[in-house]
Structures are given as structure tokens and as C-alpha cells.
Model the fold of this input.
Amino acid sequence: MAAQDAEEIEDQQRSSIIVVTGEGLPPPQSSDAYAVETIDREQLTTTASGRLEDALASVAGFQQFRRSDSRSSNPSAQGVTLRALGGNATSRALVLLDGVPMADPFFGFIPLSAIAPERLGGVRVTRGGGSGPFGAGALAGTIELNSAGPDQLSPFGGHIYLNDRGETESAAHLTGRLGSGFAVVSGRWDRGRGFYTTPAEDRVDASARAAFDSFSVQTRATAPLTANVELQARALIYEDHRTLRFDGADSSSTGQDASLRVVGRGALPFDALAYVQSRNFSNIVVSSTRFVPVLDQCNTPSTGLGGKFEIRPLVGEQVKLRVGTDYRLSDGQLAEVSLSAFSGSVNERRAAGGRTSDLGVFAESDLSIGKATLTAGARLDRTSIRDGFYLVRDPAGRVLREEVYPDRSDWEHSFRGGLIYALGGDMRLRAAAYSGLRLPTLNELYRPFTVFPVTTQANANLGSERLVGFEAGFDLVPSDDIRVSATAFDNRVKDAIANVTLGPVTRQRQNIDEITSRGIEVSTDLTFGAIGFNGSLAYTDAAARQGGAAFDGKRPAQVPAWAGSASLRYTIQPDSLLALTLRHVGRQFEDDLETDILPAATTLDAYGELALHRNLALVVRGENLTDEEVVTRNQGGSIDLGAPRTFWLGLKLRK
Done:
């Protein structure tokens, strides 16, 4: 009797144990019907550059607008996409950090320098249009970034690295248990004089190195509200300053983000999220002929607000259901001053801005029938574009041009559905079809910009992009150490927003008939004892379509046909490793008329970590070891280059 009482007490204690994960609800198993890739923490923290975009490039089909990384590009050009659906600097992929959309509310770029890889526990990339939470932004797919928790972080850790140009990368974190919850405080600071993006033969006295100075601080805490409900809070502050091409051509981007999330894992699982973002951007454009400022984009404040609520009612063993709603609001405006290249006096003062919003409802259901799993989901979105304006004044304040654009709203729908079939022998087949939606950004609608000598005009009449696509593939997973995956896809973006050439030095953002993208993606992860290999390869046949246009049938700007990477890792002992990464990006074109070529480039990177002590390691990194010339921009022969050969050396405190 006493033994029975003791067992009952033990069972009660086990049932009352509170487990706080700091994560959202797990993705449904049926989401594997789509082309999904994951990046583990080791891959994230062992890149040669220490940059998030470098780790994401290991996924077949991932692409930035330009080849330059977040140290040497203009922040507003940091759009990310998947499946060669590029062509402008806005993100066509939805990037989430702990469930929060990270795209800048005004520009749509991703603040890559503020998302430190060492803070992350893993990444999940789903290619193809989405219809789940915030699915209206997942035109090309979704990149889910999940912060690391105390099970992945030491109580105290950090690193400091120095490269052969005297640049530094330093980071630190503190992790602690707070009762049944935990808190993490982390910071990172990157600074350096940079390298010359201008080829040696084209440099002038005003040519400048791509100097950078950025920091970010993130705090994250979780606490249990009940045995099955936890509260998660996160705050991020960052600043990023860069110089591009010429002395005085300085840009800055800043942000203050905060979010609250309540996750329930009981009989009725739910996920409630609210967030606010305050961002700003400034940029000085320097003439490439007189080398003086000609445009001061002095202030671009923007605000993002949003949230979601999702529940997953238990319908049955074979049927899974998720339903919910989400909302996003983007509000911002720019203030800029046009300057005379001869006298430096003010020519014009300009202001432009507006707001966009999206209120969506979504539902998705899975059905298991024997070896098959069927999934289907749908979204309905109420979109609006409001309060748009463009104002130009002369130096005395007199109005030269004033435009107030009519408010617009619409109902949009999207869907996705898929099938997984377990063929046996550790092989599964999958097929999916989907549609997607992306509203134009405030930047595309209202802000013209100049990358001398080319001026790209805004277009307040832009409509939403719509994607329709389908795919089929297989996954072979005979063990935890072997995975091979392949996917064939066909995606079409109707009314795609592209920078259309109007003249030798003029472009405009326009909705074109469509961008087509079809191709094959292959990826593999292999582990043989101490040796690990992961590789990816993507071939994409992409074309812009517009009847009668000069670019009809040509490859979209900035889109390569071939892209691939291969990484080989050797674990010397539990705390030491060596890794080599070979990466290839095929030939691209700067513009929609295929006149300015960006040649193919192949780079080799290395990473080494050698344990010096139980808590300390020596780290050696090498970027672009073969010193390949990577052309990142070519406008009529005016060229920018990517990072040259760079060596890093430093110490890493791990425990």
C-alpha cells in the first residue's frame, strides 16, 4: 500500500513538472510535403564570414539581391528570396525570427547584420508560396529563424576575432535560469575599415573602403504562466553604419524591436504573438563624376505593428487542424534633400510615404490515410494601401510638386496543398501546389533612388504580386546520418514588380506580366563517423514575360541559372573541427536587358576550431581563399567587387 502511494505521488510530481522551451508550436508533420531544408546550430556558427547570409547560402535556391554581404552592401539592397524569383531589392521570402516578420516596414530588406548566427539554435527553410501565419509575405517561401535556448548556450560565452585588415568581430552572451524559465542577454559588435569594392584600375582619390561599424543587443526571457502555458518576450536594438564606394557615401540603419508571445501546449494548443518595430534609414549619395554629395536621404522613419493568434484543436488521430488570424501594419515616410553637385546648395527637399496593412485569416488541415498524408490550407487577406503622398519643395519652401494618391483596398486569397507518400525503404514521395501574395513595399510605391548614373523611379500604382506554383520530389532518409532530397518545381509570379529600363539612365518599378521560374533543387547531408558533408545544387530556368517589351523572354536581373555549395567537416575530437566550403554562383545580369554581365564566381572558405582548454578554443577562418574576383555590381562598366581573400584569428569562450 505504501509503495502504491509512493508511485502515485511520483506520478503527480512528474505531471506537475513545468518545461519551458522558448519555442513556438512545432511545425505540422504535413509541412514536409513542401521542399523543406534545415540548418543546424553547428552550420550556423562555423561559417568563414560569421554572417547569417553565408549560412543561408548553403540552401539550394537561396539568393540575395546582390552577391555582396551585409558588411559591404547598401542595407536597402538586402532583400532575400528563393528559387530565383529575384529582380529587385525587396524580399520575396518571408523571414521570421521567433515567429516575428523581420522585413523592414518601409524597404522590405532584412537587417542581416542584426541577426547574429551565434544567437540562433536552428533555421527551417520552406520553399514555395505559403498560406499559414503571415503567409501573405511568403511569396517565394519562408525562412524561420529560432533563437537558441539554455540547452544550446553555455551560461557565459563569447568570442573575439581579428582579421588581416585589422577588423574585429566580438560577441558575448549570458544565460541563466529564472525559476522554471530562463533569460538570455547577448550582444555583438562588428567594425572595420573594409576593403575597396572598386577595382584598382578604376579607383580615384575619392574612392573609399567599404567601412562598417554595427552592433546589436538582444534580450530574451521566458516564464511559465501555468504548467502548459509559457510567456516569451524578446527585445532587439541595433545600429549599422556603412560606407560604400566613395568618401562620404555613408548609410545607417537602426532598429528597436519588441515582441510578446504566449504559447499553450495543453489540450487546446495555441500561439498568440504581438510585436512592434521602430526602424530608420539614412543614406548619402555621392556623384561618381564630381565626388561630392548630391542626395541626402537624411531620414526614413518607419513603424511595423502586428500579431497573430493560432489554435490547433484536436479533431482526431488522423486529422490535424490549425486555424488563426494575423495582422501587419507598415507605416513610414522619407525625407531627403537634393544637392547641387557644383555648389553644394539645396536644389529640392522631398518627402514621400504612406502605409500598407494586411489582415488575414487562415486554416490548414492534415489527413493521414495509411501511408499517405494529405494537407490543404487557405488564406483570405484584406489588404490596403493608404495615405500615399509625394511632395517636393524648393529651398525657400515653395511647393513644386504635390501628389496625394488614392487609398486602395482589396480582398486576396491564396492556398496550398500537398501529399506525402511513404514509399518504403526509407523513401517518401511528395507533391505540392500553392499560390502566394506580396504587397508592394512603401519603398517601391513612393521612393525613387539613384545608383549613379541610373535613376529608378517609384510607382504609386503598383499592384500586388501573385504566385502560382507546383512541385514534386522525394526524400531518402535511410538513417539519421544520411539524407538525400530532390525537388522539381515550376513557379510563376503574376504582376511581378521589376525595375524596368526606360532609357539609358532611367528605370521604373513596374508590374510586368510575369516571371517564370522552373528548375531542380538537390541537397544532401551525410555523416560518416567524424566526417560530415552537406551539399546543395540548384538549376533554374527563369524568364521575365511582357508582350512587346525589350526584356520579354530574358532572364530577370540578378538571377543566376546555377548555384551550389558543398561543405566538408571533420571533427578532430568532440570540441575541435575543420570545415571547408566550396560555393559557386553562375553568371547573372545587372539589368533586365542582359547588357551588363556579372560573371560566374567560385569561392573556397575554411573554418577551424581547436580546443585549447575545456572552456576555450582557438578559431581560424579564411574567406575566399583563392581570392576570386566576385563582381557584385556592373552598371555600364562601373563595377563593385565582393570580399577578397580574408584571414581571421581569434578566441572563442564556449562554457
In short: Helices lie at 2-15, 41-45, 52-56, 442-446. The longest helix spans residues 2-15. The CA atoms of residues 77 and 111 lie 10 Å apart. The chain has one domain: 32-653.
